[in-house]
Amino acid sequence: MSENVPVRPPEPKPRVLLVHQDPAFREALVRQLAMRGYQVVGVDTSQAALERARSDPPEVVILDQDAFEANGSNTLREIKQLGSLTPVILLLRNGSRLSEHLRRQPQIVDYCYKPCGLDELIAKLEAARNARSRPKPKGVARWLAQVWSGLTRSVGLAASSAERKGVP
Length: 168
Known about the structure:
The chain is of the alpha/beta class. The protein folds into two domains: 15-135, Rossmann fold (3-Layer(aba) Sandwich); 137-168. Helix content is 51%, strand content 15%. It contains six helices and five strands. It has helices spanning 23-35, 46-55, 65-81, 100-103, 118-132, 139-165; strands at residues 15-19, 39-43, 60-64, 88-92, 108-113. Strands 2-1-3-4-5 form a five-stranded parallel beta sheet, with helices on both faces. α3 (65-81) links the parallel β3 and β4 (88-92). The chain is globular, with a radius of gyration of 17 Å.
């Protein structure tokens, strides 16, 4: 005897704003994310990002370190002034460090080093979207939440990798 279990439709993918100065990288990442079902708009400057955020607020922003350094502090401040709690994922150059100033920016919820694997970036996108609906913890609670998030994300990525390889 089978039960009629209601099937929930898949949750729509978040709208993403990608800010990256390199057109080839930007276009390739927009294409890759779009193939995975994300609605992605790519822009090359912080100013273009602000204009886009005003007209069509994204759910998550991916901001390149170079675009941030050009005018990113103002971009984060202005996006926040629009009343947006939009989470930001920062793309860092390999070997660079996230400064203490950036660590204290409430909108920067995560970062990854270039070159970044697409699966890693997607995991960060999904975590950022989920984090948007929760208040950001402070102090020890924040640290514990970050540790837990990292552990569960690692376990989830390892499990999905094992499934793709056919490991039970």
